[in-house]
């Protein structure tokens, strides 16, 4: 079992994982890509709109609740929300895909010790995965404890355990990036061994 992200004495951020955890992280990142990848522009789309990544036609919030949480309306006014979505949603989708792709590349370059070169990509992908899973199992502050005690044959139990693990990983990465948030000075923060 991983101890989460750790900073080494030389300042690198690493994550030691076993093969199952490594595979799970790669799978989670690929599923984020599947959820948010933008649609290919149609052949008859306006060339300028396609080049700028604008979405033509009527743009709505996704029917998939997880995607809707990952790509929420930016404005309360429906017309403003639609216009904003039309001009920005593809860029946001592409940024999320790029973060997840970077995570996959760093996992594939590594063995059981993953060296994190792009912590922002890891934070973004871990957060996107947590949001998607949390939406699927309908987690709230009020039912977190209840979900943690689900019987193993409940289909939500496995997802809850993945959600909980990703939360732990995200928190450990934030702690590496800013130990002061957790009451550590830079000198007192936990340090992993350099190999």
Outline the secondary-structure elements.
Layout: E1 5-8, E2 13-16, H1 19-36, H2 47-52, H3 65-70, H4 78-108, E3 113-116, H5 119-136, H6 144-148, H7 155-177, E4 191-192
Parallel strand pairs: 1-4
Antiparallel strand pairs: 1-2, 2-3
Can you walk through the features of this model?
There is one protein chain. With 195 residues, this protein is α+β, with helices and mostly antiparallel strands. The protein has one domain. The protein is 55% helix and 7% strand. The chain is built from seven helices and four strands, in the order E-E-H-H-H-H-E-H-H-H-E. A four-stranded mixed beta sheet has the order 3-2-1-4.
Head-to-tail CA distance between termini:
19 Å
Q: Strand order within the widest sheet?
A: 3-2-1-4
Count of helix runs: 7
| Helix/sheet category | alpha+beta
User: Which oligomeric state applies?
Assistant: single chain
State the gist of this model:
With 195 residues, the chain is of the alpha+beta class. It contains 7 helices and 4 strands; from the N terminus they run E-E-H-H-H-H-E-H-H-H-E.
Task: Give the tags.
four-stranded mixed β-sheet; 4 strands; 195 residues
């Amino acid at each position: 079992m991983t101890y989460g992200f750790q900073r080494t004495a030389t300042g690198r951020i690493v994550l030691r994982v076993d093969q199952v955890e490594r595979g799970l992280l790669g799978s989670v990142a690929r599923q984020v890509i599947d959820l948010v990848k933008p649609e290919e522009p149609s052949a008859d789309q306006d060339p300028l709109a396609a080049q700028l990544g604008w979405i033509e036609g009527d743009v709505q919030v996704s029917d998939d609740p997880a995607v809707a949480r990952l790509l929420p309306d930016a404005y309360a006014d429906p017309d403003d929300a639609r216009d904003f979505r039309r001009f920005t949603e593809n860029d946001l989708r592409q940024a999320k895909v790029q973060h997840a792709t970077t995570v996959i590349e760093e996992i594939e370059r590594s063995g059981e010790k993953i060296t994190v070169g792009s912590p922002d990509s890891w934070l973004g992908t871990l957060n996107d995965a947590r949001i998607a899973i949390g939406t699927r199992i309908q987690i709230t502050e009020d039912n977190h404890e209840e979900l943690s005690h689900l019987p193993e044959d409940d289909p939500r139990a496995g997802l809850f355990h993945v959600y909980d693990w990703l939360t732990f990983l995200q928190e450990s990465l934030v702690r590496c990036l800013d130990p002061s948030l957790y009451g550590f000075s830079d000198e007192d923060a936990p340090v992993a061994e350099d190999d």
